[in-house]
Amino acid sequence: MTNASKTATKPKVAFFDFACCEGCQLQVANLGESLLDILGAIDVVEFREVMSEKWDKDYDVAIIEGSITDHHAEERIKKIRARSRVLIAYGACACIGGVNGMKNSFELDEIRRCVYGKDFKLFDSVKTRPVHQVVKVDYFVNGCPIYPPELVEVLKCALRGLPYTVPDNPVCVECKLNENVCMYDRGVSCLGPWTKAGCNSWCVNNGNICYGCRGEVKNPAKNAASDVIGKYKLSAGLIKNKFEMYNKCKEGDINGGK
Amino acid sequence: MNYHILKKDELDGFIKKLSGKMKVVAPVARGAGNFAFQEVSGASEIALKYIPTILPPKKYFMPQRETMLEFDISGAKPSDTAVVDAGETAVFGVHTCDLAGIQCLNMVFSERPRDYNYLRRKDKILLIGLECGDYCDEYASCALVNSHMPSGGYDLFFTDLGDRFIIHVHTQKAEELVEEMGLAKAVPADMTALEKVRAHKRSVFKKEVNVDPRKLPAIFAAGADSKVWKDVGARCVSCGNCTNVCPSCYCFDMADTMNLDLKTGVRTRTWDSCQLEPFAQVAGGENFRKERSERQRHRYFRKFKYSVDKFYRFFCTGCGRCTRTCMADISLKETLTSLVKENV
């Protein structure tokens, strides 16, 4: 097989970004050795962080970073979806709204005025939504930033047409397997008990707390929360605030939007 | 009676000599009152007085994540190779509760079909016990399940006699090691001192829950619908901490993962927990233990009822880890006490 025909058979993959810090793209660019393996398996046709080429045909896989925060973004993501066989949302902004969702805690016009000043009406802005609340998402790679080994796993599943299941267990599960000293034992509150695992307790392994960037488990322990807050003498408001940093876009949480 | 003596100031030499022969792991202080078994190269790193480690030493017998198989599906016929990457390891300083846990796992994994990964690791482990002279803390309930005194399951067993350790040599492997290390034989005065330690323990360690332990399986059978489970379930976080830290929990999940070449891959097993919501979920979405109360009840039954039916022993070793680690303060001693009260 010639090189050209080999390239022709590789799946066409494009990376796009919406409202985000592009930190997840940076994680991809920083993958190192496994990036070379990935590039052996796919043909990257668009990726603003690392190349200037564009692609005008359909995508086998579109990988989306960022959340949807204005009408233009909404139209653009719908067009991308229409051209993509498989769509992967990656990073907290794309998967759960992420820090952009903090906007939803305020009156929209109030927050627009704060950011854009008196002429705020000139700047379009809508409530923050994760990608799946606008178009259907086939795979999720949670996290802020994404945990690179998980992206590789998801990519392998996407290339083989297999489902990837985001673990619906708290981060504590992986944290305990890694034998970390519990942050609560250190006198620090941590969102691990309510946050979806899959990151291999990356932050706690490195001495930080869990900030809840992967989103809540499906069935978080509502009653237990007050016991935990009581046991460790925490304030409920503090935990709530920590949660709202990443988890403010849960209304209308239907994959594919309404 | 095969007892030998090691002076306290000779422990460092003992550990160093041992680590020249194999990997030596022992309890090490990890801060915030936590301890963990990890590799050591001298006695100064070891915490001789420690409360049960975050994870029990079962992690050396069945690692948290273990590669079982490497496979290749590129050929006309898929091929595979079994993997066991176990090296010689001495686990030093294991308390009697954790020795009991390993005895439980030995029974489980020796059942047919045998678990060769577990058994081959076990073959390569030299188990060195260390006696607790007093309670580690108020969470332990080792006297209730009679695991506060040594009853086998080790190669060597150390008891602190102040300026020296008296060592019970229990296996052929241990016998050879003691000979090689040139440890002195214990004299009658040492045996008297050991008996004094045991007498003190008998006066300190008392059944932590007011119940005849022999009646516990029947109490559980009668209490299957007790409101105790509702109460415990209402508080449970479902974080799986209680089972992950349990010395006798052994459930695992298996998964095949492809490499990026999409031709080769590995089969891995990872600890799983009956406390997690997806654990008992099957194809079609049915979940046999959907409620937290059902899952907690299951955990307790696995320790005090089913294990007695199947293996004639409690699978609770009284180490207290599940209580110590519980985010929501669910206490094993309190749960048992409530259940017992309901059934008298």
In short:
Chain A is α/β, with parallel strands linked by helices and 258 residues long. In chain A, 36% of the residues lie in helices and 11% in strands.
Commentary on this structure:
The complex is a heterodimer of chains A (258) and B (344). With 258 residues, chain A is α/β, with parallel strands linked by helices. Chain A folds into two domains: 3-160, NADH:ubiquinone oxidoreductase-like, 20kDa subunit (Rossmann fold), CATH 3.40.50.700; 171-244, no CATH class. In chain A, 36% of the residues lie in helices and 11% in strands. Chain A has eleven helices and five strands, in the order αβααββαβααβααααα. The radius of gyration of chain A is 20 Å and the shape is globular. The model of chain A is unreliable at 1-6 (pLDDT under 50). Chain B folds into two domains: 3-62 and 85-204, no CATH class; 213-251 and 272-342, no CATH class. Chain B contains twelve helices and twelve strands. In chain B, a hairpin with a 2-residue loop joins β2 and β3. In chain B, α7 packs across α9. The chains are: A alpha/beta (258), B alpha+beta (344).
Helices and strands, with pairings:
The complex is a heterodimer of chains A (258) and B (344).
Chain A (H helix, E strand, L loop, with lengths): L2 H7 L2 E6 L5 H7 L3 H9 L1 E5 L11 E7 L5 H13 E7 L1 H5 L11 H9 L22 E3 L6 H13 L10 H7 L24 H4 L16 H10 L4 H9 L14
Parallel strand pairs in A: 1-2, 1-3, 3-4, 4-5
Chain B lengths: L2 E5 L3 H11 L1 E9 L2 E6 L25 E8 L6 E4 L6 E6 L1 H15 L5 H8 L1 E6 L25 E5 L3 E6 L2 H10 L2 E2 L2 H17 L11 H7 L4 H9 L5 H4 L7 E7 L5 E8 L20 H13 L1 H6 L9 H5 L6 H11 L2
Parallel strand pairs in B: 2-6, 6-7, 7-8
Antiparallel strand pairs in B: 1-9, 1-10, 2-3, 4-5, 4-12, 8-9, 11-12
